[in-house]
UniProtKB/TrEMBL annotation:
InterPro entries reported in the protein's UniProt record: BXL (IPR044993), Fn3-like (IPR026891), Glyco_hydro_3_C (IPR002772), Glyco_hydro_3_C_sf (IPR036881), Ig-like_fold (IPR013783)
UniProt similarity note: Belongs to the glycosyl hydrolase 3 family.
Pfam families linked: Fn3-like (PF14310), Glyco_hydro_3_C (PF01915)
MF terms (GO), sorted A to Z: alpha-L-arabinofuranosidase activity; xylan 1,4-beta-xylosidase activity
Protein name: Beta-glucosidase
Domain of life of the organism encoding this protein: Bacteria
Annotated ranges, domain Fibronectin type III-like: 268-344
Presence of the UniProt keyword Hydrolase in the record: yes
PANTHER family membership: BETA-D-XYLOSIDASE 5-RELATED, SUGAR HYDROLASE-RELATED
SMART domains noted in UniProt: Fn3_like
UniProt GO BP: arabinan catabolic process; xylan catabolic process
Keyword terms: Hydrolase
Species this chain originates from: Sphingomonas bacterium
C-alpha cells in the first residue's frame, strides 16, 4: 500500500490466528506464523513523505483476520481540532468512552479502568484537554457524550453551551443528533441514571451498602440527576389532585395538569416521586442509608404550544410500600407526599400533593 502521512502518527498491526507479514519501506516489521497469539508492532513516522506498505495474510479461519490501525499523537490531533474550530461557526465535539473498555470482566488495564470496572468516572484526560482547547477558540461548543454509563463532566457543564448524552446510538444516531441540534426535533429524553459530579461522590464498587448510591439515597448535589432532561419549550404544572386519605392496601389515583408554555411543540415526561414519612425513610440504625424519595410512575405527554393536558397515575399498594430493616415490605401508616413534575423534587418544575395512609398491610417481597 502507498499511504500518505500528513501528520506524525504511529501504525499498529495486530494479528489473530492467521499468519501475517508486514513490510514498511521494504523492511520486515512483523513475521508471524499464526500461533494464536496476538502480535503488535509499532513504527513511528517523523516525516510527511509517502511510505510503502506491504501486507500479506494467510487467511485460514472463518472468523479470523487482521487489523491495521493507526494511533495519532494526542498533541497532533488536538492541533488539527483547534485549527478546524477556528474556521468554524460552532464546534460539536464527540467525546466519551467505548464498549471496548466498558463491560464485564474485560481483560484490559488502562487508566480509569480495571478489567472492565471503572475506577475513575472522569472524562479521559486527553479528551478533557481537547474540549478545553477547542473552547479557547471562542466558538459555541456542543459536547456529545458517547458512553454506556455516567461520566463526570463538571467542566463541560460549566463551559459548554450544550451537552448531549447520546449513549451508544445505532446507525441512525448521527441523523438523530443532527436533527436535534438543528432544531427540527425537540429533545425529550430523560436520564436513567445519576450523573455524579466527581469520582469521590460515588462509593467504591466493592461496597454494596446503598449509602449515597442512586438518586434514592444520594445526599449530595449531582452533576445531572436521575430523570433530568431538557426541552426547547417549557412546561408549567397546575395543581396535583388526589384523595387526602386512604387505607393501607387501597390504590391512590393522582391527576396532574400541565401546559406547554413555550412556542414549540414538545413532549414532557411527567414523573411521580413518593416521599415517605421521615420515620420510614431510615430503615435501620443511624449509619444506614436514608431513603430520600422513589420514582413510582412516569408518563409521556405531547403538547402543542399553549395547549394543556392531563396525566393520571394509579399507584397500587406496592408503589406505596416501604421495606424495613428486616426486609419486610408493607404499606405503612403515616403522612406522605407525592411530587409530580418534570424531574426529581427540587430539580425540576412540578407540584406536590399530601395524603395520609391509615393502617398497615404486608406485601410479598
Amino acid at each position: 500500500h502507498l499511504l500518505r502521512i500528513d501528520i506524525p502518527r504511529c501504525w499498529d498491526a495486530c494479528t489473530g490466528h492467521d499468519a501475517v507479514r508486514l513490510w514498511i519501506d521494504g523492511k520486515p516489521v512483523i513475521t508471524d506464523g499464526g500461533d494464536g497469539k496476538s502480535v503488535e508492532a509499532r513504527h513511528v513516522f517523523t516525516d510527511t513523505a509517502p511510505h510503502d506498505f506491504r501486507l500479506e495474510l494467510a487467511h485460514t479461519g472463518e472468523d479470523e483476520g487482521i487489523r491495521l490501525t493507526w494511533v495519532a499523537p494526542a498533541e497532533a490531533q488536538r492541533a488539527r481540532a483547534v485549527a478546524a474550530a477556528q474556521g468554524a461557526d460552532a464546534v460539536v465535539a464527540f467525546v466519551g468512552l467505548s464498549p471496548a473498555v466498558e463491560g464485564e470482566a474485560l481483560q484490559i488495564e488502562v487508566p480509569g479502568f480495571s478489567g472492565g470496572d471503572r475506577t475513575d468516572i472522569a472524562l479521559p484526560a486527553a479528551q478533557q484537554a481537547l474540549l478545553e482547547a477547542v473552547k479557547a477558540s471562542g466558538k459555541p461548543l456542543v459536547v456529545v457524550l458517547l458512553s454506556g454509563s455516567a461520566v463526570a463532566m463538571e467542566w463541560a457543564k460549566t463551559h459548554a453551551d450544550a451537552v448531549i448524552a447520546a449513549w451508544y446510538p445505532g446507525e441512525a444516531g448521527g441523523t438523530a443528533i443532527a436533527e436535534m441540534l438543528d432544531g427540527s426535533v425537540n429533545p425529550s429524553g430523560r436520564l436513567p441514571v445519576t450523573f455524579y459530579a466527581r469520582t469521590r461522590d460515588l462509593p467504591a464498587f466493592v461496597d454494596y451498602n446503598m449509602r449515597e448510591r442512586t438518586y434514592r439515597y444520594f445526599s449530595g448535589t449531582p452533576l445531572w440527576g436521575f430523570g433530568h432532561g431538557r426541552s426547547y419549550t417549557r412546561f408549567d404544572y397546575g395543581a396535583v389532585t388526589a384523595l387526602a386519605a386512604i387505607r393501607a392496601g387501597e390504590p391512590l389515583t393522582v391527576t396532574a395538569r400541565l401546559t406547554n408554555a413555550g412556542d414549540r411543540a414538545g413532549e414532557e415526561v411527567v414523573q411521580a416521586y413518593l416521599i415517605a414519612p421521615d420515620s420510614l425513610n431510615r430503615i435501620g440504625s443511624f449509619n444506614d442509608p436514608v431513603l430520600r424519595h422513589s420514582l413510582v410512575g412516569f408518563q409521556r405527554i405531547a403538547l402543542q404550544p399553549g395547549k394543556s393536558g392531563e396525566v393520571r397515575f394509579t399507584l397500587d399498594p406496592r408503589a406505596l410500600s416501604t421495606v424495613d430493616v428486616a426486609g419486610d415490605r408493607a404499606v405503612r401508616a403515616g403522612a406522605y407526599r407525592l411530587f409530580v413534575g418534570g424531574g426529581q423534587p427540587g430539580m425540576a418544575a412540578g407540584q406536590e400533593v399530601r395524603f395520609t395512609i391509615a393502617g398497615e398491610q404486608g406485601l410479598p417481597k
